[in-house]
What we know:
With 262 residues, the chain is an alpha/beta fold. It is 42% helix and 15% strand. It has helices at residues 20-29, 47-57, 72-80, 102-110, 132-149, 165-170, 180-190, 215-231, 239-246, 249-259; strands at 6-13, 33-40, 62-65, 87-90, 116-120, 161-164, 195-199. Helix 1 links the parallel strand 1 and strand 2. The longest helix is centred in the middle third of the chain and has 18 residues, at 132-149.
Amino acid sequence: MSEQLTVSVLIPVYNECDTIHEVIERVRSVPIKTEIILVDDYSVDGTREILRKLAESDKELKIHFHDVNRGKGAAIRTALQHATGDVVIIQDADMEYDPVEYPRLLAPIEQGVADVVYGSRFLGGAHRVLFFWHELGNKFLTLLSNVLTNLNLTDMETGYKVFKIEVLKQMRLTTDRFGFEPEVTARIAQMRCRIYELPISYWGRDYGAGKKITWRDGVAAFWHIFKFNVLDRMPTPTREERLAWQGSRAQLEIEEEEEGLV
Length: 262
């Protein structure tokens, strides 16, 4: 891993008092240069107080607080405002996703072949056996998203998404809750980003352990997929805008030839 690469780890947090210390330590244990940005989304289980103490005692952490509960997407947007790294990783605070995966996920970006990397729970990585209907729902939502984006992802709803910071900061992002996943997927398709997908391990929780996403969020995802792929699309980026994150005119010309644009 390049010593020059700084990774901004954005951690949206809501009611994770049992795991918040562990996730910070696991991120720090990864042998890469990180900038850790946590946003508490008005937790009520003691997490907020833990983070306030950390904000006073650990000045290397960037910690911000919402005054009301706004949702994962809103917390990510708040964290992104303070990100200064070269690459952004979204890290949930519940430890379903293990930071040990970072070097593998960063590799395609570091090698210059990707602008965005998704970690897929459905490509053969180790995982805890949990809910059949959740997996079926995730795969159906991914299929619907693929139909409208013309991508061939296997896990649109994955929590592990990695972006060049220029890509994420140029997006128009508006959703506050779990609609972030279909929205950001629509945006990377509309921006013609180079996307890679890699298998990851997944240590899923059940509802007794604090899992928060519900069937209502699944229903809302249908609307978000339709909205951001049909009703609220981003304009196609210009060549100069694409150069801002791809960095190589020669590589961009190859990409355009493959897309049939030249």
